[in-house]
Amino acid sequence: MVDTHAHTGQVSQAYSWFMPAGILTLAVVVFAFLAFDDITTDNATRFPLEYAALLGCSVWCLLVVVQLARTGHRVLGTISLLALGGAVWGQRAVGPGIVPSFQPEYVATLAGAGWFLALSIILVALGIGGSRAGCPSTA
């Protein structure tokens, strides 16, 4: 009986980061979208704030990848790492005046953003499931 409660406490503790990480990842995706929108639609020649925001978004996504791997979610971590790498690679072609297209760089950037949007929902769901696992049963 004690082992069961200790195990559920460990599960709950291991999953406790998922909910806030999912919410923050959703915010990061929104910030990245806003930065890309500004870069592609503005007439400015330099975008230091926007590129700094994209760098910050990339760092956050990399931290999520590491945490996924550390908690045993290697498939999600691997897909996330590939999506992040593709988005970083593709970002080099996204600049002022670019129009939506099927260019590999544009598709990779859009796919990366889409994956991290989906991942934010997955993380929130894992957080909800983990918090329920840590709750003592009412039976």
Question: What's the gist of this structure?
Answer:
By secondary structure, the chain is mostly helical.
Walk me through what this model shows:
With 139 residues, the chain is an all-alpha fold. The protein has one domain. Helix content is 79%, strand content 0%. The chain has helices at residues 2-15, 18-41, 48-70, 74-91, 104-134. The protein is elongated, with a radius of gyration of 18 Å. Mean pLDDT is 84; it is low at 1-8 and 135-139.
Number of helices: 5
Please give the number of β-strands.
Answer: 0
**What is the molecular shape?**
elongated
Order of SSEs, N→C?
A: HHHHH
Largest sheet: none
Rg over CA atoms: 18 Å
Kindly list the characteristics that best describe this protein.
5 helices; disordered N terminus; 139 residues; mainly alpha; elongated
Topology:
Layout: H1 2-15, H2 18-41, H3 48-70, H4 74-91, H5 104-134
Helix pairs in contact: 1-5, 2-3, 2-5, 3-4, 4-5
